[in-house]
């Protein structure tokens, strides 16, 4: 009975989280089309420059406490209050630091507008901690419905503001202010839904537990964030801002389907698997099914986007963005493995092994810096192409401990994923070939989508993919 209830909760969680991700990235996609037509590649490049500083600061402010609280068997109000006070205090300190350092960052890039841009975007360190406890409470209760409602409301508000400001000619500020308003609106609405506020003081015992788990996770997140954002830093410094804008748009479009699935899988599977963390058989069985279904869903999405990259870019945001087509195709192939990485790393967190999580991140980032140093000097395109190899190497590293914990290492996982991967590759070949045969680009998109769906679903049915059963269950109402 308990297992059926957990399955039902998982299913509902996947529904709502997918709705959240789909509405979010769908709206981001549509709004991005309008804004990319009105803004220049340089505008997107400038807003991407301070991302690394804000992202790293955000990790220091959260310190992995949220992840620790989700897996804690019994969560107390002292835990929530302690995490709140810590995040708010560190957030204020980081804001002050970035306020004084923003002129130095602007001078480094020789872009004066970065000074006020960083000072405004850094305001997130004030309102961010105010909504963290509410998110933790909802996540522990496997309530993904409420955050979805909040996200939809916030994204509509942000979209209206962003498009209006872009239309009125505010340039980079259209992107910045819309994001700022989205954050504040999210905090206010979440508080309306979850009336939590700190009722206790600081607890040394709670901090000791949260920091004991969270500090290693924080370290791994800092490494990951710096590495993921170091590319824009280097491109922005040694290449043109326009080049950075092209990379930023290509990377953004490639992340939409990948992050959509990545976000759903990570957010839902972590609290669900945490509930069966001591039952190795159920943990292993649930993990393998999630792995196979994830590959079955994400591989064709990324393959289809890569195949139709050129007509999609030209039709949606005009030919001025044409140089990002090849970048988008290459990034799609490397990022199709993101959700698989996420599931492997979630297993370590579920088992409370944040130390192993950190160890893997250190190894991957050493490899990543070597990879970045060897490829980026040859240009952005070579860097993106080599990123495919880097992603596979990272998967080998991520599956190292998974093989020990649930006996499902790299080669076993590749075996589970190979049918979906091969079918997606076949679909990509056909859809990409159609773009050379059909002339109107809008027709390339329509025919490519229809043919791609028919080939993939038809092939899966013909070959009797077992993943279809799980997908049908997720789509059923009962």
Characteristic key phrases:
85% helix, single chain, 0% strand, mainly alpha, 478 residues
Description:
This protein has helices spanning 2-38, 41-48, 51-62, 65-71, 77-109, 114-121, 124-140, 145-167, 172-193, 204-238, 241-274, 280-307, 309-317, 324-335, 338-350, 354-375, 380-398, 400-406, 410-437, 441-462, 467-475. By secondary structure, it is mostly helical. Helix 5 (77-109) runs antiparallel to helix 7 (124-140). The two termini are 15 Å apart.
Brief write-up:
It contains 21 helices and no strands.
**Number of helices, where a helix is a run of at least 4 consecutive DSSP H or I residues:** 21
Give the N-terminus to C-terminus distance in angstroms.
15 Å
Q: Detail the poorly predicted runs.
A: none
Category from helices, strands and their pairing: mainly alpha
The averaged pLDDT comes out at 78
Main sheet, how many strands, which sense, barrel?
none
| Helicity level | over 70%
Shape: globular
**What's the domain count?**
2
How many β strands by DSSP?
A: 0
Please compute the radius of gyration using only Cα atoms.
22 Å
Please provide the ordered H/E string of secondary-structure elements.
HHHHHHHHHHHHHHHHHHHHH
Which percent band covers the strand fraction? Answer: under 5%
